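Please, structure for the following, as tokens.
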Amino acid sequence: QVQLVESGGGLVQPGGSLKLSCAASLDVYAIGWFRQAPGKEREGVSCIRSSNGNTYYADSVKGRFTISRDNAKNTVYLQMNSLKPEDTAVYYCAADLHGVSRPYYSGITFGGYEYDYWGQGTQVTVSS
């Protein structure tokens, strides 16, 4: 079992910045950030592979968000700059524990990873 704890959400004005953290209870293959706004489906934002730092971003956040990791702390960060009101959502981190593709997997995939473990989410509100 993997436990994930997000932190760093809050209220910020348009154009502002926030940095989210996702602390994992053990080493995982990859971690992704997702968000879900009211009335919308959950969407992938960014993900990173622990071993080599390879990253992937959704088009909507490219150039504004940066994902990074500190393997010594089993923690992944999401630096969010130039925030827009449409970035308002609950942000979740999720983990792909082993990085093995499963033909029977029916969960959420993003960036080529399969996510089995989810954090509780942290609210990000962008408003003036």
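The chain has a mean pLDDT of 96. The radius of gyration is 14 Å.
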